[in-house]
């Protein structure tokens, strides 16, 4: 018997400013935060997806830099592949509010975390790298 297989591709932003990382809480999740971003639309480039999602959810046009991470995981019958890009204009996001964005209703919260904050961030490897100051790198890292 074969199962329907589904692959989901997402682009996410690593937005740093003054040593803090911008994270979001989605309406359908509990107990953890994630980096802002979202699903690719059909035919869309991963960087264009990230640009669109940042404008829709946070109301700010990002300056997209290097690719830092690629993550893959399987959960609830879906295989997810996520691309994590640096956003170089973090200062433009420091005052963003959900009400400023057309799709801000998709998020419960936006906030900045420091390395010492007791917040669960997914993926855990990325959280560990952030807390140890190793998030920014010249190499692309694979998270499985």
TrEMBL record:
Q: Which InterPro entries match?
A: NUDIX_hydrolase-like_dom_sf (IPR015797), NUDIX_hydrolase_CS (IPR020084), NUDIX_hydrolase_dom (IPR000086)
Q: Is Hydrolase among the key words of this record? A: yes
Name the PROSITE patterns for this protein.
Answer: NUDIX (PS51462), NUDIX_BOX (PS00893)
User: Which GO molecular function annotation, any one, does this entry have?
Assistant: hydrolase activity
Q: Which UniProt keywords apply?
A: Hydrolase
Organism's domain of life?
Answer: Bacteria
* Pfam families found in the cross-reference section: NUDIX (PF00293)
* Keyword Transit peptide annotated: no
The cofactors required by this protein are:
Mg(2+)
Coiled-coil portions: none
Report the leader peptide range.
none
Per UniProt, residues of the Nudix hydrolase domain are 1-136
Tell me what this protein is called.
Nudix hydrolase domain-containing protein
Q: Which organism is it from?
A: Candidatus Azambacteria bacterium RIFCSPLOWO2_01_FULL_46_25
